[in-house]
Amino acid sequence: MTPRQRWTLRTEHTGYTVRLSPDGPWAELHAWGPHGVEDGPSALDWSHRTHFITPADAAPAEYVPHGLRPFTGADLIAARPGSDRGVWWSFQDAREEPGALRLTFTDDVLGLRTTLCYATVPGTDVLHRWTELTCTGEEELRLERLDSAAVNIPVTAAARLTYLTGQWSQEFQHTQLDLARGTFAMGSTQGVPGHAYAPWLAVQDATALHDAPAYGIALEWPGNWHITAQAEPGGAVRVRAGRVPHEGAVRLAPGDTLTTPRLACAFSPDGLDGLSRVWHRYERRLAGERLHRPRKVLYNSWEATGFDVDAESQLELAEAAADLGAELFVVDDGWFTGRADDTGGLGDWHPDPAAFPHGFDRFVDDVRALGLDFGLWIEPEAVSPGSRLHAEHPEWVYRIDGRPARRVRNQLLLDLGRTDVQDFVLATLDRLLTGHAIDYLKWDMNRPPTERGRPGAGPADRLDLDAEHVHGYLRVLDHLRTAHPHVTVEGCAGGGGRVDHATLARTDVVWPSDNTAPLDRLRIQYGFLHAHAPHVMSSWVTDAPGVFDPRPRSLAFRFVTAMCGVLGIGADLRTWTPGQRAEAAGWIARYKQVRDVIHHGETRLLGSPGDATCAVQYDAPDGRRTVVAAFSTGPLDGAPLVPGRPARLRLRGLDPTAAYRDAATATTYSGAHLLHYGLPCAWTADHDADLVVLTRQ
Q: What is the pLDDT of residue 3?
């Protein structure tokens, strides 16, 4: 094999080697793992191990179209209108640059050029993959499947898949299954990643230990998507991922190029916990310089006032929040005209003069005079049927010609794929953010597209409405970044319905779930932190009772849970006792002392919420401080599992020869002790969570 037939891309600790297959015109994976793994024979060469299928169906192919791969799942299905489906391509060339590779294949009969693209992400163990599809013929092409990439992972007997499932108020549930044979699929056609599944998957060998090497993928696409894993003949699992056209296919005109969403591929030899740190490091890089802005402690007034917003009650809450040490006050839904409940107002984004009788700017100035930044909630993609906007522009709403528009949550959805709708949203945000002293914007989306048509534009199957909406959404977020760089942007979609790397690259934090109950939230955050970094995880302290796990927990438990990410408060502070307020002020002060470690450090998940004791460990980049957020999820009475004996949390990643001091208890531990015996947690009925700060001596 000549050097031109094999290429290796190297990340910080891993290598990814691609070769041209000896069996046909496609590329296939030779090796993926720690540096040096590419030097031996491939662990994925099954081309001749099975019968009754084609070599392309058995190969660990990086990307193969229907035509070459007829049986076990193609990554691309294309045809000219009125002709048979299928692509039979030839290898054209390879272009290699430092950290990047492009492999091009052509089908001159169909008129299609396909380029497989690879790029490493500096300072991480993440590799981006995507595909560029160009119509080179004189007729348009119909693309029925246009995946971003396929990923091949060696296993012995079965693959252990870890993924994140849920529903509204129960997102990011850590879920596993073993796939020995057959197909596993998940995705969304709701126009957003959705609450049911996250566009993220981890794969391990099911026969290995829990901390076996882990491979991960995440699709960078805030629209319709799928991830499909197939346990293939010959002993591998092959994972395909990509966007899903809402209309069933995408038209590609002569001369046009379609670029698929990027698929981020990651590897860690240290299991799922190690893989989570790879993703965290990657998301810190996505944040760029904005990572170094302190994520301020916010207060959001929604749970205290709902739609009943007025200047007097909001200022009362702002004063209480400032007294606790909050740094940011956010007015949620209900601040604009026509918004007495969820049946009206959306689209008419002007402060309600009845709610702010002395003027909205006077109200904002009064909040800021308390030493607080100011923020607003907005739902730019939504419109109420009775709004002025809808009366003036009914054609801006998704609707099928001649059919009624369905209301979800008493609202309709704007067609953000239209440039005039984008321009309206941009103008609205510019007006609000330049006309008022606003530092924070919470972007919400509370309904999926249903009747996805564009009145007057012809049949929807001639359009690419899902992609156009995504591009409009990203255009607006990009504008916010450049035109209003001082504004912190929070992404939300009825909770965690739109969390993906495209959104995370353009926002500062995201809202994982509307469920803020203590034990429910702990499980949500446990799953979330497997895929996403603490600095993007907004979390509030509220008085909400449990939904799925109703067992009560202390105010301390709620604070420590919320401090695992970006701390916020959403309770009605007017009902809190002086003792609760004093306790809250203490927790906020402690959080400010360690949030740099939580947001910038290395995270380790110690146990799970299914254990009687679990924790999240954060290690400062310089190794000087370790912060442990510890929780008792066991008996309701808080009694130790063994009377007189505290629970213990074995920490990880410490220097066994160093000494670590807990100033709160005046106790010094050796690193070896903390690694071997663990950190003692003496839980009682009144002490069900703790934040321990260890300083390396």
A: 44
